[in-house]
Amino acid sequence: MLVLHNARVEFGGHTVLRDVSFELPQGRTTVMIGRNGAGKTTTLRTIMGLLPLSAGRITIDGQDLAEVPDHGRAALGIGYAPEDRRMIPGFTVEENLLLPTLALKLDQSTTRERLGSVYELMPELRELSRRPGGSLSGGQGKMVALGRALMVATRVILLDEPFQGLAPALALNYARTLAKVRDQRKDLTLLVTESSPQLLGGVTDRALQIERGEVMETTLAEARH
Amino acid sequence: MDIIIPLLVDGLAAASLIFFIAVGLTLVFSVLRVLNVAHGSFYSIGAYVAVSIGGWAASAGLSPWLSFPILLISAALVAALLGPFIEATFIRYTYGKPEALQILVTFALFLIFEDLQKLVFGVQAHYQDAAMQVLGVSEIGGIIYLNYQLLLIALAVVVVVSLRLLMRHTRLGKLILAVVADPEVSVTLGINARQVYSIAFTIGVFLAALGGALATPTSGVAPGLGAEAIVLGFAVAAIGGLGQIEGAALAAVIVGLSRVIAIYYAPAFEPVMPYLVMLVVLLVRPYGLFGTAQARRI
Lengths: 225, 298
Fold this sequence. Notes:
By secondary structure, chain A is α/β, with parallel strands linked by helices. Chain A contains eight helices and ten strands. In chain A, the strands form two sheets. In chain A, strands 6-7-8-3-9-10 form a six-stranded mixed beta sheet, with helices on both faces.
């Protein structure tokens, strides 16, 4: 279980997360809903150690993430797909997918197993595998970013606005893939941020509303209004 | 036509020494995004250490063939002692900061190193040419060349090829490329970017120190060598496109050849040739031969 205890983040004299507390129970899907600038991306970046906490704690199964270096999140099994895809342009799709296994020094059989399972979930990535990361369309990039996060994620996966900017057909395809992930990786904890959560109806267990850096529990039905 | 071969050999020999100065500078810039003025210090410290150990080996009566491992060990020693230490104590705090600050910090380091070198090695010039003597000379097309110069050309090629192999085909190389492309995403994928910066900086120090060490058998070392190296290194790195290793190699060849052509036809112009070439190249291609607008920071 990933828990935020009164997490506060400040930059440039402004408080962008105001003592945020919530739990992500293991094996559940949580969607975080909020307008642009409400603090969704900040929340995910803070969990990933990219932004420093000015107060509060973040723990995973009781372990304080403050004791883990920023690059240590991946070794703990926390996968992250940023909103803007962020492929390494000079690497092929497969090299992008394999990058975390290289960084984490995973052995060959684990690497093959993880890559196989990502290709099984997203067969279209196998077809793209030789393409350079810099040549992908927006929708393809989002899928590869999801695949790359899945290569890391054994416990938690954080997806930042995965549907942002996707054409409706691609968004539907992405949602189907997420449903498959949910179905096949029962232990995986999912946190998805979204400004329009309609597409997530099928897989969401609970919803959090974030507004001006403050988080409250809500329901999807409420969030739609 | 008779002049072509000596021109090429002389030009390439000059180019190889110039390349050793610029390649580490451009590598460090491409990974750390820091324009390291102190790079010139690592060059001259490499030279001083090589001359000192070489001088000790000669006075101890060791075989002159040992000069070659000594040159290499000197560079490795400088890199191991100074690379991780300087990165962790000074350079690290300038990442992502304005270029002016980075230049001030590394320039301050350069000045401190200059005085430390005078303190430790004195102000007189040092020579140690055992490596050059032991290799002898060759005759190409009726002209005598130092075999040591030919060795330098070969070594420069080895360095270009090794860096390319390192970057494209090793785990470390891939991690470095990932950090260069996107430090933040690299960290979220488990890459220890801090360690990658430290290693890349240390490789840069090694290349600088190796350049300095390799230059000593033919030119010795005296105060002011570091300043000469950094100015020339910047010019060559800028011509090639800052951050471009192959660009630095091509730029070194162009500058080396242009200097030699100047020596043959207009000797007075020889010292300004690198800067004339830089002027012309940057007027036509503001980001250098291999550079892109994005890669350029200053």
